[in-house]
Specification:
12 strands; single chain; 206 residues; three-stranded antiparallel sheet; Nucleoside Triphosphate Pyrophosphohydrolase; alpha/beta
């Protein structure tokens, strides 16, 4: 199963017939041209949706869905201390540091670089992988599907945080891990599962 977000909307790609039958909005893939037209028409309408896309092989379905877009990869991080998580505020929305992968780097190197650049940090290191997220966006009349690889990270804490303003980041700050619900309610839907995973990891190590 794949969840792909577009703003407040979501495509749920599945091969589970139960999810298909239970959904109020659904679409069964049979032909690439028809499926692509259906997907792009939903995006261009701009109305919120939560739709189940079904095919009996979800990996084939995702491959078809992906081919409807320009596909890009990004890396990002959840930098934690014993008590806090590093949060950024970009364009008025709480977010996590991330950015596009460059051609010469691995996705892990990309994630570390982006966190260091966006937050003004040094000596950031990956401690564990997290689940990846997918979201769609439009730029210059082209539709993009972005896969973001997320990682738990750590760094020396005695550093001065510095927001990368040229990337529209307004603030960088440490937020208490025990109060993440206040951030989740004011972030992007695609990040909610990342925050939930961080909270689960924190609980296991408490």
């Amino acid at each position: 199963m794949y969840k792909v977000f577009f703003k407040e909307s979501c495509f749920l790609l599945t091969d589970d017939q139960k999810l298909l039958k239970e959904s109020k909005q659904n679409f069964v893939h049979k032909d690439f041209t028809i499926t692509k037209a259906f997907v792009l028409s939903l995006l261009e309408k701009g109305e919120p949706f939560y739709i189940v896309l079904y095919h009996d092989d979800v990996e084939v379905l995702f491959s078809i869905f992906k081919s409807c877009f320009l596909y890009v990869k990004a890396g990002g991080g959840c930098v934690c201390t014993a008590e806090d998580l590093l949060i950024i505020k970009r364009l008025g929305v709480f977010d996590l540091p991330k950015g596009h992968q460059e051609s010469h780097e691995t996705i892990e190197q990309c994630a570390v670089r982006e966190v260091e650049e966006e937050c003004g940090l040094e000596q950031v290191s990956i401690t564990a992988p997290l689940h990846s997220t997918f979201h769609i966006y439009q730029r210059n009349d082209c539709w993009y599907l972005k896969k973001t690889y997320w990682y738990m990270m750590s760094c020396p804490t005695e550093q001065t945080l510095r927001a990368q303003t040229e990337e529209d980041i307004e603030a960088v700050f440490w937020h208490p891990l025990g109060q993440l619900d206040s951030i989740v309610s004011q972030t992007y839907p695609s990040l909610e599962q990342v925050f939930e995973e961080v909270k689960a990891i924190v609980r296991r190590h408490a």
